[in-house]
Amino acid sequence: MKADLGRRRVSKKIDFFVESVIRQMTRLANQYEAINLAQGMPDFAAPARIKNSAVEAIQDDYNQYEITWGSVALREGIAKKAGEFNGIEANPQTDVTVTCGSTEAMTGSIVALTDPGDEVIIPEPFYENYVPATLISGATPKHVRLKGEVFGFDEEELKACFNSHTKAIVINTPNNPAGKVFTKQELSVVADLCEDYDAIGITDEIYEYIVYDGLKHVSLATIGGMADRTVTISGLSKTFSVTGWRIGYAIAAKEMTDAIRKVHDFTTVCAPAPLQRAAVEAMKMPDSYYTKLAGNYQKKRDFTLRALSEVGFRCVTPEGAYYILADFSELSPQDDTRFAQDLVKEAGVAVVPGSSFYSQHDPVLSKVRFTFSKKEQTLKKAAARLRKKFNF
Ligand code: GLN
Fold first, then answer.
1. What domains appear along the chain, each with residue ranges and CATH number?
2. Per-block average pLDDT, block size 10, for the chain (392 residues)?
3. How close is the Cα of 22 to the center of ligand 1, in Å?
4. Which atom of ligand 1 is nearest to the CA of 127?
């Protein structure tokens, strides 16, 4: 007779995970043949030069494992770019790790740098993967809300989050979903607290080149003594419109990089080799590429803001990234999940319920997130569907 040990088939860690609401909305978009303004991914082509370079790398039989930390040429390219654009001094031999997307860089860094009992401060609204990464590490997420139209910190509330258990704070600038671009002054407050409490900054800077209205992207690692206590994360996905390539990286001082590399080594071995070759080309794009990228997105932002405001959404103008967190309370009394589910079915436009970017306490239920990382014609079509749905 078999013993009934009452054993679960799956790990308790899995209880921490909820299905990604963003990808769930993509599935609904496909099911209802809706326009997908939910998942932040372009529907337009990546630069030809980069695509060609990937094809050539495969044809040249560059198809085997790459060095675990990333190819030498790519790490050198990343270090050069970090110096010139971000003002971060990085040694390509010891401070750079190429990962499978910035998502792996973030999860790997949190796993590599935190322990059970540690606290990780995650300002909200936040992008969905920081919390499961913290929980799987056995650490505890602590949230502080970004306030008002400007999505700024209340300094007293932020300070109250720090204590002797605080191991790290996750800073996402430009922020997904709020579009907030943190200023040097705001980041200085964070830096001072990190130094006072001996905490690490882990930044998600994946939208660093998508900044509007002449604002400047600032990296936390460049402030005060943060260079030694910051992991700077970014990647190719958003800047070069290749979200499916999964090429990201983490820049950190040697001791932290050693730990991040160990987790990376045993998780994925290496990021895709031929795409790393193409990424080297990407790092050589001229300044004009980045100016055009931000300019094009600014036009898409302005079009989408106008279209949403016209039908009755209340929006805060994003300073960066490619999302709008729109308040629909004047259009419907529903909660955000219902609203998003009806919108995808009835209007044929998929969005993400805003609550998936907030912790469960004191929920925000009247907002949905639209992405405008789409062709002009896609945005126009979506705008027409929204006008029809809301009888404008
Ligand atoms: N970063 C993109 C977004 O926020 C895609 C993320 C995802 O697939 N989870 O929509």
1. 12-39+288-389 (3.90.1150.10), 48-282 (3.40.640.10)
2. 84 84 95 97 97 98 98 98 98 98 98 98 96 94 94 97 98 98 98 98 98 98 97 98 98 98 97 98 97 98 98 97 97 96 97 93 87 98 97 80
3. 6
4. 4
